[in-house]
Amino acid sequence: MSFAYRVQSAKSVDEALAAVQAALAAHRFKALWQTDMGAILTEKGFPGHGALHVLEICNPARADELLRIDADNAYFLPCRLLVRQTASGSEVGILRPEKLIGLAEDGPSADRQAKLASEVEVELRAIVDDAAH
Asked: Which architecture does CATH list for 4-132?
């Protein structure tokens, strides 16, 4: 399976971004940071990428739980969500926590970390699905 979970949407990028914000709130997540990488690249002389919004998102309770398992899990925070322009509208996607946590070394807390990553991924997939449809 891919490192990303993504859903195509007929919504414009702006509509998808608004839907993402609503879905984040409904699932108790918050966007901590957002940038349009496409606009930045164009500004720096590398045009042609279209709208490419990167959001760093977080559910504080889930982040606290992950950090209490192992402080080094901070490297996996916050979660990343992407909204980008496509020929038919937009794409909304996430970097999959289950894949990321798989990079952690095996240890006594590996099962707890994997379970939490799986639970968070289910929540993030719901956010993507809600925003894209």
From this structure: 2-Layer Sandwich (3.30)
